[in-house]
Design a protein that fits this description.
This protein is of the alpha+beta class and about 200 residues long. Helix content is about 15%, strand content about 35%. The chain has 1 helix and 12 strands; from the N terminus they run αββββββββββββ. β4 (about 95-100) and β5 form a beta hairpin.
Length: about 200
């Protein structure tokens, strides 16, 4: 009799436990009062230089030996497309020249180079995905009487380069020992293009 009663009590207790679990599950799965959904519409922006790249100025004093002069160019790139498509910076130039007419003096069309890969850093107070560059260096800036076809100076691989960031490139100008003194000028053209 006791064994039978004990078994019945255990069965009742198990049944109560199952009912309790089911009730707790129903409470947990019920939608809280006042619950709703939320959405965020994030529209794509554009790819552009945040500011126009500045001029580059070299200087040197002739001393009869071959020399080099360096100057830094910065490119503040803004990739607000939200696409992760990547981008690249291209560059070309006219030949450095001094004087005019029959007295024009020229530097070599391969006088300007970038010897090592530029650096990149997120702009101040900006969360960015820094560009992953795949361009090989040294880079020779194309030059000619008429600017030749632009070449890639730096790029951002797919899924990199998102957000505002600044690329800093150190340009080097080679000045042979037999260069004529004078003020030389060249027109440089940069473009920011979508895709690596």
């Amino acid at each position: 009799m006791r064994n039978t009663l004990s078994r019945r009590l255990r069965a009742v207790a198990a049944g109560v436990a199952v009912v309790g679990l089911a009730a707790a599950s129903a409470v947990l799965s019920a939608t809280p009062a006042g619950a709703t959904s939320a959405s965020a519409a994030i529209t794509a922006g554009s790819l552009a230089f945040v500011s126009t790249p500045g001029s580059v100025a070299f200087s040197a004093t002739l001393n009869g030996t071959d020399q080099t002069s360096t100057a830094t160019a910065t490119f503040d790139v803004g990739d607000a497309t939200g696409s992760g498509a990547g981008w690249n910076i291209t560059a070309t130039s006219t030949t450095f020249s001094s004087g005019s007419g029959g007295n024009t003096k020229l530097l070599s069309t391969s006088a300007t180079t970038v010897q090592t890969a530029p650096t990149v850093a997120c702009d101040t107070n900006v969360t960015c995905t820094p560009a992953t560059n795949a361009i090989s260096f040294p880079f020779v800036l194309p030059a000619g009487g008429n600017a030749p076809t632009a070449q890639k100076l730096y790029n951002a691989a797919v899924s990199s380069g998102m957000g505002n960031q600044t690329v800093s490139a150190s340009f080097r100008l080679t000045i042979p020992g037999n260069t004529y003194a004078g003020t030389y000028a060249s027109t440089w053209t940069y473009s920011l293009v979508s895709a690596p």
